[in-house]
Amino acid sequence: MLVNKILINFEHQKVDNTKGVVFIIHGIAEHLEYYRDLSHTLNEAGYDTITYDLRGHGQSGGKRGYVKKYSDFVDDLHILIRELTNKEDKIFLVGISLGGLIAQLYRIRYGHLSGVVTVGSPLTGIKVNFIQRIGLRLFGFLKMKTNFLDPKLSNNFDDVIEDPLALPYFHLRMGYQMLIRGAKHLEKNQNKNLTPMLLMHGGDDKIVLPEVSKTFMERSNATDIEMIEYDGVKHMVFKDILKEEAANDLIRWLDKRI
Description:
Blueprint: E1 2-3, E2 6-7, E3 10-13, E4 21-25, H1 36-44, E5 48-52, H2 71-84, E6 91-96, H3 98-110, E7 115-119, H4 130-138, E8 143-145, E9 169-171, H5 172-189, E10 197-202, H6 210-219, E11 225-230, H7 243-255
Parallel strand pairs: 4-5, 4-6, 6-7, 7-10, 10-11
Antiparallel strand pairs: 1-2, 3-5, 8-9
Helix pairs in contact: 2-3, 3-5
């Protein structure tokens, strides 16, 4: 699908008598195939699913591992929701890591959601001084290497995909736009367009500490917000040792909000 002049690769799995539509938003340097199993599990539970490759990722168009401004990811998602769903649909966003930040940025800008789920997501801004900020802006063309077999990511790598579609790097500009500018914007506006929220986090996550989700929850004025922390689980909650438990928790949470 052509979205904001970028070809976005997506998969739309439909079921009969659907309960709702769940958008699964992957993390940095990943692509939609990482969460195809989760998509199928949600289908079996009665939900339509839409998974897609972020711009610059997977089989979508755009400069690899790059985004000009954080709102580009949000605007892409808005068009996908507009074009692929109906007004009567119950729409849920499930964002993994960076995808959770995108989901929350979408919520505060557009609203009209039945729920948002974040999984090990950087929901609070990284604090940098003036010199660091200038450096990140000036050297945004530089690349950061990725490592999908980093032991900080998971206790279980049986399901971790390492293939040509997984990015070997991302540009510093994307990190700056999302983890500093985007997360800071969320911090300032997190209580706009409140909706039911579930924060899922690995208790042993060293990439994004569980305290990040706890801080977000403490600052929230939402009346329906919950956090589940999985002991011994690292960053990739839906790939780690308690992935089945996490999927069941997600489905139970969704079902209660239908």
